[in-house]
Amino acid sequence: MTLDTALQLTIGGLVSGSLYGLVLIGILLIYRVSRVVNFAHGQIGMVAAMCAFFLVPHFGLPIAVALGLGLAVAALVSYLVDILVISRVTKIGSGFDLIATLGVMMFLTAIVELVASPKSFKFFSLGAQIEFTFLGVYFNANDLTVILTLAVVLGLLALVLNKTGLGLSIRAVAISPEIARTTGVNVQAVRALVWAAGGAIAGVAAILIASKVTLNAFYMTPFLVKAFVAGIVGGLDRFVRPMAIAVGLGLLESWVVYWLGADARIPAVFLLIIVVLGVLPSKYLQDLEQRP
Amino acid sequence: MFNMQSVARSDGRGGPENLRHMAWVTGGCLLVFALPFILETYWLYLVGVTAVYAIAGLGLVILFGFTGQLSLAHASFFGIGAYVSAIGGVHYGLPGIVTLPIAFAICLGAGAFVGIFALRISGLRFALITLSFGELFYWASVRWSDVTGGEQGLYAEPLSVMGIDFGDPINAYFLFAALGLLATALCFRLRDSSFGRAMAATRDSELAARSSGVSVARTRYIAFVIGALFSGVAGWLFSGHVGAISPNFFDMFASLNMLVAVIIGGVKTPLGAWVGAAYLVFVPELFGMAGVSNLYPILSGALLVLIVLVLPVGIVPALQQALRHLGTSRGDKQ
Amino acid sequence: MKTLEMPLKGDVTLNLENLSVSFGGLMALNDVTMSLKPNVWNGLIGPNGAGKTTLLNVLSGFLVPTGGSIHLGDENMTGQSTQNWVERGILRGFQMPRLLEGETVFVNIMLGRHRFLSSGLGAQILRLPQYMADEKRDRDACMEIAERLLLGDVLEEPISNLTFGTRRLVEIARLLAAEPKIALFDEPAAGMDPDLRHELVSILAEIQSAGKITAVLVEHDVDLVRRLCPVSHVLDAGRLIAHGATDEVLGLQQVQQAYFGVDHD
Ligand SMILES: Nc1ncnc2c1ncn2[C@@H]1O[C@H](COP(=O)(O)OP(=O)(O)OP(=O)(O)O)[C@@H](O)[C@H]1O
Ligand SMILES: [Mg+2]
Keyword annotations for this protein (chain B) (predicted)? Predict the structure, then answer.
């Protein structure tokens, strides 16, 4: 194996890992402020891609405008999901939120299938045709866009969370909505904003993913599953660890596919999960509220 | 005294309660025997499918409803049962009476093995580890195409047990009714036993469970294996009844569907598994009859959300509550 | 109440020697030595964060001590599982009641009887006579305890319908249903309204004066400790700073200082 191949594999892994990470960011953000695991997250992103895809031919919009509109729609859908469903469910009891987001996921999937017909489409290539070689490694503009997008989103997020009043409010709500409220934070507004932002980031992820796979109502599922894997194994209440695992998963897949063939991708990932969850010492697996 | 009586009720010696109970059981039995002579063959077939999904659903009621463990490998055990039955029949010409114990043993082994990894964890991590096993099963069932027929799947012979041909819809119906009732009775008895309380404790408060001497890991483990067995037997019935199986009956979405069904029916009650199964089987059928089958998926997502919002306990317990409010108090003790 | 033959025979002392528990750098228990004599009720007092709950966690198998040992008579109990503690009749309550929210009061109390179960799963499903006899015995015991703890009228209520005080009672009923030889109560009367509290105290006093069980009672209410516990132990910042007859202990200057923040000089 040459250095070129190793670099190539690493770049490929980084790209898919970044996509997992982009899906995961929204999940983590939303979990922070509302303690809800959002199964509908991937499909909310898909709405953005689908909107953009159909806006261009139907209204003759430029691609960039259509993508922007798609993101806005995803943000709106995400906000509505919280207002109409999640915020009502969590009052009833724990555990139901998960099932409710599952219902939303099925609902969105069905609507898109109905509107878009259950066919598959080829999405905009978003720079995949712009190719170049650097240090013997093959790149295309689309791959670079993915990695850059993740970096930009992470950077912006760090900036907002750590350097602004809004970020302080978000962190306060994450610790305890009740306490945040008593200190004058508008909890509802913060929640709405985070859900909308989460939806838009899901849209960004889904658009980038759409440019790499064939577009249908289910194309987000494997990416959502990997994002959840990273989130659950790494801890949904953390940030760095799950993000690192997301990117690591991409790298792992890339190398496994090279060594063992494309067929080995699924068993490699899921065997790893089983080993990790099966052998990790109990103290990492205990929920905080289960302590006496 | 009122409370004495209502507590005494669950051991079936509650006087008038007992009579009412008998009336329900007799009525139920009559209905079960009358159905095959009322319904057309196709509907009878659907009732059979309902019973199959109800048996699998009962496994989920035990595992998720009673014990609180959300499994995403349930359809995989269903698949093991189905493949054993189909492969045994197609490749080896084995009759159902032979494949059933094989399916049972393999599900027992698989459940016991997967259970080892899953007994320490709960919540989302449990869901994830079962999902992982489910994905591996799906992967293997597609890949191992010499035996499983790959994505195309297999045709399965109708079940035949000791010379009785269960390809005949009425025979099949009685087999399914008998097994369905047996599974339901088992599920009720599990719930109303000491082990049932251990499962509830494991689900609601690990601390309460441990401080009362309940072994949480052991309880989870047993519940998991029982759930796997229910699902496996249901899968064994499924392949002969439906006649053709393929991996997509047993993937993550199939597991999610089973989960959705029992949640809609009522996850903490065995009857919920039946209502959920009937929902899974008949509602798409009705939409098809009305010529709007494309609306079904939307409805099922919306309905799930609605149920969680309006009837978080599920249809069966909500009905029972309503009955009790009407002052009839006919429902079984929930 | 019928008493059952349990492995723990009559009167053994629970001896704690040099017990320590540390969380990271924090010593929640620091070199604690005490002995709990049979059938004596022990007050366990101390300011917030003194380590009282931590001590109960160790005495029920929920925490493994980082140092020291615990002996029940001759038997080494250090680091034993929660199940082993329960099996020997050592039962604990929680500072926040831990109940099965989805179940009725009756089921919650019945859970306490779990340790008397002698039938396997098969016998339970087949409803074999031995199991049914056990169930009847357990049911009767629970009814009796429920009546005694004023829960007779709410037996079929789901836990989620109850007030905080009643939830406390249900947890105590579960603990008593297990027929403890040594009972560990963590602030059993906290958060109860005065009437209920009064009832609870007289019930506990009745049990105490029957003289059949040992108890450790964590409690901030000093009057309650005076009434129920002839002996008391005082923890402060993980250390045992005093122990002895309750009245004497409460009179000690260092106790008043640590506990009430009163400075006599
Ligand atoms: N699981 C844990 N992890 C880390 N620290 C802990 C843990 N449990 C307790 N502590 C710490 O140990 C110290 C003793 O706590 P403990 O709960 O035993 O106090 P307590 O005497 O019961 O107080 P209170 O009267 O408030 O109930 C406290 O400082 C607490 O923060
Ligand atoms: Mg305490």
Answer: Cell membrane, Membrane, Transmembrane, Transmembrane helix
C253 and C190 in a common domain? yes
In the listed set C174, C207, C227, which residue is the last one of a domain according to the structure? C174
Query: Ligand 1: which residues within 6 Å by Cβ?
Result: A 291; C 23, 26, 28, 46, 48-54, 95
- The reply to whether C53 and C117 lie within a common domain is no
Q: Which residue type sits at C182?
A: I
Q: Which residues partner with B154 through β-bridges?
A: B245
**For the segment C3-22, what is each residue's pLDDT rounded down to a tens digit?**
444 444 557 899 999 999 99
Domain-by-domain residue ranges, chain A?
A: 18-220
Q: Are A35 and A98 contacting, i.e. CB atoms less than 8 angstroms apart?
A: no
Instruction: Name the minimum distance, in Å, from the CA of A37 to any CA of chain B.
Output: 9
Mention every residue, 6+ apart, whose C-beta is less than 8 A from residue C17: C33, C68, C69, C70, C71
User: For residues C29 and C55, is the Cβ–Cβ distance under 8 A?
Assistant: yes
Which atom of ligand 1 has the smallest separation from the CA of C51?
Answer: 18
3-state secondary structure of C119: coil
Within B144-227, strands assigned E span: 154-155, 160-161, 164-165
Q: A257: exposed, middle or buried (C-beta count within 10 Å: 0-12, 13-18, 19+)? A: middle
> Rounded distance, CA C163 to CA C99, Å?
13
Residue nearest to atom 2 of ligand 1 (CA): C23
A35-61, pLDDT tens digit by residue? 888 999 999 999 999 999 888 888 888
Residue to mutate, C52, C58, C218, C235, ligand 1, most ligand atoms under 8 Å from C-beta: C52
Determine the Cα–Cα distance for residues A105 and B284; give it in Å rounded to an integer: 19
Q: Which of A110, A87, A37 is nearest to B302 (CA)?
A: A110
The reply to whether C7 and C44 lie within a common domain is yes
Domain of C74 in residue numbering reads as 1-89+180-265
| Range with lowest mean pLDDT among A230-234, B223-227, B298-302, C243-247 | B298-302
Contact predicate C142/B8, CB 8 Å: no
Ligand 2 centroid–CA B152 distance in Å is: 61
**Residue B320, pLDDT above cutoff 50:** yes
Return the closest-CA partner of residue A31 out of A168, A207, A191.
A191
Please report the residues numbered 58 through 117 in chain C whose beta carbons come closer than 8 angstroms to any beta carbon of chain A.
62-63, 94
> What is the sign of the dihedral through the CA atoms of A21, A25, A28 and A31?
negative
Q: How far is residue A238's CA from residue B93's CA, in Å, rounded to a whole number?
A: 54
Domain total for chain C?
Answer: 2
Residue of chain A with shortest Cα separation from C53: A292
CB–CB of B213/C83 below 8 Å?
yes
